[in-house]
Amino acid sequence: MPKYLLLKHYSGGPEPHRPVPPMDQWAPEDVEAHMAFQWHVNDMLQKNGELVDAQALVPSRTWVRYGGPDAAPVTTDGPHPETSDLVAGWFMIDVESHDRALEVAAYVSSEPGPGGDPLYEWIDVREVMTLPPAED
Amino acid sequence: MRDEPARGLDEGALRALIPRVLAGLVRRGEDFDTAEDALQEALVEASRVWPEHPPRDPFAWLTTVSVRRLVDARRSEAARLRREETTYAQPRPGGTEAGDDTLFVLFCCCHPDLSAASQVALTLRAVGGLTTREIADAFYVPEATMAQRISRAKRSLRGRRLDQPGDLAVVLRVLYLVYTTGHTDRVDLATEAIRLTRQLTLATDEPEARGLLALMLLNHARLPARIAPDGSIVTLDRQDRSLWDVREIAEGVRVLQSTLAVRTDAAPPGRYQVEAAISALHDDAASAEETDWPQILAWYDDLVALHDDPVREHPAAVLGRAIAVGHVLGGAAGLRETDRVREVIGDRHRWHAVRGHLHELEGDLPAAASSYAEAARLATNVAERDHLVRQAARVRALDRSGSS
């Protein structure tokens, strides 16, 4: 069965279908509903036998590269998160098909936002390459 | 690697034997590394054999089989080692207390040359008797990674003299780290840390060991109230205090009192005893409103006074004291205290979370919301992040309802 990474973003990606303020500015009950939905998705994938891993990332980032021989690594924070892709976290799933991966991603995107209406968040769906050579 | 405890002996009793057997082997001059491997193999053998043939003396059985494994591993020196095997199998002359063995193995595992992560992993394995798999689960790393970390740690102990008394302060720090790492579904590290610290108190009279045990017990007592059924964090002021474990509180207070009773002006209580005293005062309050903040502040004064440069050496204590100052003298005074450690921990979520609380005490809800939101942005733990987002949303809602 193929594995897929469903990436959630803090910023970047296509134009938001429904722009919303940061979650700490939502009504408390909307925050609760949103968080409960995340756990529900986790549970559902687990019960389906489709969950491989789910993680969240801290928003701060550091870019780093080799500095050359005898030099310290070179680091930078830029480009600014507002103008670049910033991954917020992921679900890794192991599913029957590409279609099922899209179905799960769409469901993740239906998470409740302010007012309890769906967030319509864009989810980046990426297939994970397998390691050993495929069998004939 | 051992997957389940050997039957025929309950798991607690079996795990209590592990440091004793290991200490015996290392004291007789075996490398910690090879001795630990041999013991692991003996445990695998035990899980196979014991269900059918439970041993009369599990300690002697494990020692003998471990020694046999050591012998097998060095067949080239067979003649010499076979002679030693018979010696090993003899009962140990004099026979030391089980507590001494635990302490001895703790000193090996908490060797100052090892990294903190290695000290913790090795302690859980060699003293706690957890499997590599269990330790890997507790730290959310693959089993192969943890196996590698443990064997590297053991290799770096190779050739070092392990007969010197170790640094008890390092042992206490490692045990506290095990405790604060918390617990997962499979492995309750907090309970494990309490068990190991309790064993340690049997082996040493050091008041700080009992102070640490008291601190763990007094904090652990509140655990059932600290996490809601949906996994969210419940802060101290909102906890259902009827859920607190009164038996654990009573034991913690008793242990703490026994250490404070022996203090003198020349030897004031150390940080764990002071932190336990603060925890005891929280546990003692029937409601958040009844918390004895002036006395908590007095203990924080003692805690901060333990350091020449508390801002750099123990910023968490300065921050904890700022909360107490806020409750005794008002939010603004507390906020001024947080400024002292801004340079050291101003980029940590906890600093912003404390300021959020102090702004709220002061009644400045917009500032409180901003601080909580910033804390959420910096949090590195999902439960804490979610909690801080909730705090920000709650305070903003409060502000809206108040101003409308």
Automatic annotation (TrEMBL), chain A:
Residues 29-106 form the YCII-related domain. It comes from the Bacteria. InterPro entries: Dimeric_a/b-barrel, YCII. Belongs to the YciI family. This is YCII-related domain-containing protein.
Automatic annotation (TrEMBL), chain B:
The keyword Phosphoprotein does not apply. This is RNA polymerase subunit sigma-24. The lineage of its organism: Bacteria, Bacillati, Actinomycetota, Actinomycetes, Propionibacteriales. Signal peptide: none annotated. Residues 112-157 form the RNA polymerase sigma factor 70 region 4 type domain. Residues 168-258 form the DUF6596 domain. It comes from Mumia zhuanghuii. Keywords: Sigma factor, Transcription, Transcription regulation. GO terms for molecular function: DNA binding; sigma factor activity.
